[in-house]
Amino acid sequence: MKKLLTISLLIGSALQGYSQGKITTANPPGLASIKEADLKRDIFELAGDAFRGRRAGSVDEMRAAAWVAQKAQEAGLKPAGDDGTYFQYFNMKRTRTADRSTMQAGDQSLNMGKDFWVIQPVDGHLDGPVTWLNSMADTAANLQGKIVAVKIQAPSVLPAAGMSLWEYRYTASAIRQQGMALRRKGVAAIIFVANDVTEKGIAFIGHNYEDGSYQNVGLPTVTGRSAMNNAKPIPVILLRSGLESAVKQGNVRADVFMETYLYPSVNVIAKAAGSDVKLRNEYVLFSGHHDHDGIGNPVGQDSIWNGADDNASVTVGMLAIARAWVAKPGKRSAVFVWHGAEERGLLGSRWYAVNPTVKKESIVAVLNGDMIGRNSIDSAALLGSTLPHKNSTALVDMAMQANEQLTNFKIDVSWDDARHPENWYFRSDHAPYAAAGIPAIFFTSLLHPDYHTPKDEPDRISIPKLAKMTRWMYTTGWLVSQTAVKPALDAK
């Protein structure tokens, strides 16, 4: 009788935990399917030079998407995209400066993308003398209708020390402040000459300005943070620092052209059925992005921005989770969405959040990952875990429980602070889902010096760290799949 009572108490305790969403298994049954060898093989393929950086809208992104779909099929996932395929295509509208744009300073012909960049796409013609400003103090003079040139000066407020892409943020802030001051003087055009700080980061800075701007077609417009967003367009041009003397010769001629066109990107979507007859119609959504920056300005001898950590790491981690789910299904089903065009403004996740291929109300939680293969093997971050970003305490508790039971990361929540200068919470694919009212969290191992440079290569990935982060995401998803009651949205 005593044994029977003990067993009854244990069963009752387990059932109570189940009803409250507290599953106490430290080892979900599919963990053995997440193998370091598979992760290493896959990331060296996807983030290798053959895919040329997987730039959104390019043939290289399409090839990478086909690779992901093939791997998903091999893992046993079923197609969950449009029309019975693994794919969901969407159009992007890109506005950029046309390659036929030209510029001459003094007697020197300049090359766009090497010597000069147009800050904001615009149609413009310049032909005349340049008024050189020794500093912004010279704006007291009458500059109405003039072509002015000035060396970039430090912005009034510097980016926080240690911020990612520091030189770009410094330059964009300086151009925004100083450009608006010159616009108020009625200038016809502005030429900024790079200072030492800007020149140091010119590879990324120039690459960014060459990109132009992107928007989803068919969704409400999201206003970008260009340096000259709300002012009447005039030509604003950035020159490399070594061209100061050419500008000071006194005359400049430029013809710049804006072009806008549509081209596609693609989400890769697949699913694995759950084991419970009632719960299999609900989904745990695993989220990541498969694109990166493509071919850019070279750093040293390397012009391929491979994006191994950002975000091939999560792409291959999701494939490993897929193998685990197929081998040992959770009670709920899993849907895997590898988003396209994240680097162009979360365009793939914005599209899927509005146009899901499963019923929106059937998505019980979004587990998003971005950059999970670098930094200390003992540390990680979970965003969406603290206010004001947290939208589901129940989901966060399950992620924390999974960590306590299995991975034992020291969790850094400081990047979730609304005052954190990186604004990291809003820079990955969980954000559109959270905005749509779906419980969502963001797994990451945070930034590193190779972020958005050609140095983000697969040989710099810590495979043990990648495997550990993948197991944390999987275990969290497994706990979500097992609970009788789906994670609730918080009231506030």
What do these coordinates show?
- The chain has 492 residues and is of the alpha/beta class.
- It has two domains: 21-94 and 262-482, 3-Layer(aba) Sandwich (Aminopeptidase); 99-256, 3-Layer(bba) Sandwich (Glucose Oxidase, domain 1), CATH 3.50.30.30.
- Helices cover 31% and strands 24% of the residues.
- It has twelve helices and 20 strands.
- Strands 1, 2, 9, 12, 13, 16, 17, 18, 19 and 20 form a ten-stranded mixed beta sheet that branches.
- A hairpin with a 2-residue loop joins strand 14 and strand 15.
- It starts with a helix and ends in a 10-residue tail after the last helix.
- Residues 1-23 have low confidence and may be disordered.
Key descriptive features of the protein:
eight-stranded mixed beta sheet; Peptidase_M28; Aminopeptidase; elongated; single chain; M28_fam; Peptidase M28 domain-containing protein; metalloexopeptidase activity; 12 helices; Glucose Oxidase, domain 1; 2 domains; ten-stranded mixed beta sheet; alpha/beta; disordered N terminus; 492 residues
What is the H level of CATH, i.e. the homologous superfamily of the largest domain? Zn peptidases
Give the class from helix and strand content and strand pairing. Answer: alpha/beta
Instruction: Please summarize the sheet with the most strands.
Output: 10 strands, mixed
Number of domains: 2
Please tally the β strands and state the result: 20
Shape: elongated
Distance between the termini: 48 Å
CATH architecture of the largest domain: 3-Layer(aba) Sandwich
Number of discrete helical segments: 12
Radius of gyration: 25 Å
- Mean of all residue-level pLDDT scores: 92
State the CATH topology of the largest domain. Answer: Aminopeptidase
**Which percent range fits the helix content?**
25-40%
CATH class of the largest domain: Alpha Beta
Sheet-strand content, in percent, reads 15-25%
GO molecular function, one term: metalloexopeptidase activity
Domain Peptidase M28: 267-473
Organism: Mucilaginibacter galii
Protein name: Peptidase M28 domain-containing protein
